[in-house]
Design a protein that fits this description.
The protein is of the alpha+beta class and 590 residues long. It contains 14 helices and 18 strands. The two termini are 35 Å apart.
């Protein structure tokens, strides 16, 4: 289908609504992943054989002691399986203060993003000049009476115990059976043995009842070191590879606001891990897979590009380079159905405003939590965290219209990235090597143009929610500076916390009433997007609406616990576990 035909389809979708678009995107099948291994690749064959062996259901355990032994064995097998992986680890943390009406609300926040070496337990940070966090205390430490958070502490919580998880160091007590989603589990309370318990886990584990993998870890680590603190954590795993449950989410929380409590430390934090299967292209594999048909263009139109065509081709080359590099770094989600939802909104804006550009405008999703957008060439990039918290489709249209306005006004950024040498930087240097910030004058012009676009769009009479969203950002901007700090684009607020993007929409909105149950200005983080930790693919969450009981249930822009609905990988018709290359887009490890 050509670009013009696709635009015509979008006219029908104008009146569908954001929630319906979400449902449509979810119902369409995910694109099949490309298997990068060749038939003659012995390494891939060995990896595939290992996966096949791991996915074979084991004979049922006859005793609880046998369940424990298998769970210990599987935990060590998992650590071995993941030891050469380098996933991205993102932690977003909010310090809390008590509020009589809203409960515990954020007072300040912190953000960490890095790449974890699971073999060396080292973390290379994207946002700090300090490239190694190895050797730091788990959780954090006090220094000059000020509590400091260490990102290594949160990412360490992927496993029960990296070095001494066995019966010699731990006692296991059966705590019954439980269902986590569709998965039946055995529950065990785990405590360290002996007197030397420093740094050892104490808490509860859930063990699935087929291959006896640990799927959930809930507890903390003991310490006797003065000044050291081990945070409580709730760590979840997903069955993304046959036979293996991969660490995906960690929720941490400390503090007590009950009457008479004297806790000074109170926070809640989300840690997401993704990009386990993120690999750099192997030239040998690329040559083995590549098939090139020799085609010679002999048409009369075949000729050198005109100066204007050359300029547009140059901008396209820069755009492609940036998009490819961001995806290689694990920061950009692979193209998928969520992009189609965003594309529908963009098409609605373009069609109703008679916007005709020489190249189509596309949208992609950045996998990080901070609220930001930017455009490079004709590609609009919007962060996962921003999609999560937007309350409705009109709010999404407002955000996208600002970047569309930059494109319409010719505020093209990034042409320098057409030089491929500018892409030769480490993944950890992405934020230092790329940038797409506009001048204040261009931002003002884009706001004016975006407001004009919105007034002619199907969203013109639905912008109250978008304005309330901006009011909510302004109210909480000083407490959520990390969430509102963009790393590649322009900010929604200025240094004083005042909204500076699309302020005209905000000023036309009703007053913000945070205790009014029917007024939803912003959603909690994690409300819209589900992230596949293995390959970075995303999809829209299918969640039933829940009625609010009090204003404390609204939690705008806040961190909440994880509680995924656990399922096993799909089975084929004969009952065998489906190949990871064709199941949920998971490609075979090399």
């Amino acid at each position: 289908m050509g670009y013009g035909k696709y635009r015509a389809v979008a006219l029908v979708l104008v009146v569908i609504g954001w929630g319906t678009c979400f449902a449509m995107a979810q119902s369409s099948p995910a694109p099949a992943a490309i298997v990068s291994a060749t038939a003659g690749d012995s390494q891939a064959a060995q990896a595939s054989a290992a996966l096949a062996k791991a996915s074979i259901p084991q004979p049922p355990a006859r005793t609880m002691d046998e369940v424990v032994n298998r769970a210990i064995e599987r935990e060590h097998v998992l650590m071995q399986f993941l030891q050469d992986r380098n996933p991205l680890v993102e932690t977003y943390l909010q310090n809390l203060r008590p509020d009589e009406q809203l409960g515990a609300v954020p007072s300040e926040d912190h953000y960490f993003l890095g790449r974890l070496d699971l073999q060396e337990t080292e973390r290379r940070d994207y946002l700090s000049k300090d490239k190694s966090f190895q050797g730091r205390l788990l959780g954090g430490f006090t220094k000059l009476y000020r509590f400091e958070y260490q990102p290594m502490g949160f990412s360490w919580m992927l496993f029960v115990d990296r070095s001494e998880f066995d019966r010699q160091h731990y006692d296991f007590e059966f705590g019954g059976k439980d269902f986590l989603g569709d998965v039946r589990c055995f529950v065990f309370d785990v405590k360290p043995k002996g007197k030397d318990t420093d740094g050892r886990f104490v808490g509860r584990i859930w063990v699935e009842d087929q291959n006896y993998n640990i799927v959930r870890i809930n507890g903390t680590y003991e310490t006797r070191k003065r000044g050291a603190t081990f945070f409580h954590m709730d760590s979840w795993r997903l069955n993304l590879v046959p036979g293996y449950w991969i660490p995906a989410y960690i929720y941490s929380e400390e503090g007590d606001f009950s009457y008479g409590a004297k806790d000074k430390l109170a926070f809640k934090a989300q840690t997401r891990i993704w990009g386990y299967d993120l690999k750099k292209a192997n030239p040998t594999d690329a040559l083995a897979q590549m098939t090139v048909d020799s085609v010679k263009d002999e048409s009369a139109a075949a000729q050198d590009a005109s100066p204007l065509q050359a300029q547009r081709e140059w901008q396209q080359q820069a755009e492609d380079n940036v998009v490819q590099r961001l995806q290689e770094a694990g920061l950009l989600a692979p193209a998928g159905d969520v992009d189609k939802v965003l594309q529908t909104v963009i098409d609605n804006l373009e069609i109703t405003n008679n916007i005709n550009l020489p190249r189509p405008v596309k949208a992609r999703v950045m996998l990080t939590s901070p609220l930001e957008t930017f455009s490079v060439g004709n590609t609009i990039v919007i962060s996962r965290g921003l999609i999560d918290v937007l309350p409705d489709e009109a709010s999404l249209a407002m955000v996208l219209s600002h970047e569309l306005a930059h494109i319409v006004l010719g505020h093209n950024l990034g042409s320098k990235y057409a030089f491929t040498d500018r892409m030769l930087f480490s993944d950890e240097a992405t934020y230092q090597s790329l940038g797409f910030r506009h001048s204040p004058e261009e931002e003002t012009a884009a706001d004016a143009k975006a407001y004009e676009i919105l007034q002619k769009s199907p969203y013109a009479k639905k912008l109250d929610g978008a304005g309330l969203f901006l009011r909510q950002l302004q109210v909480r901007s000083t407490a959520l500076s990390a969430l509102l700090t963009p790393h590649l684009g322009n900010s929604f607020v200025d240094e004083k916390g005042n909204v500076i993007r699309m302020a005209q929409v905000m000023n036309a909105a009703p007053a913000l009433e945070e205790t009014k149950l029917t007024q939803i200005a912003a959603l909690p983080l994690g409300s819209r997007i589900r992230l596949n930790p293995w390959n970075g693919q995303i999809e829209l969450i299918k969640a039933a609406p829940v009625a609010f009981i009090s204003a404390r249930d609204k939690m705008p822009l806040e961190v909440t616990p994880f509680f995924p609905h656990l399922t096993r990988l799909a089975e084929t018709e004969n009952g065998a576990v489906a190949d990871p290359a064709t199941t949920a887009g998971v490609s075979q490890p090399q």
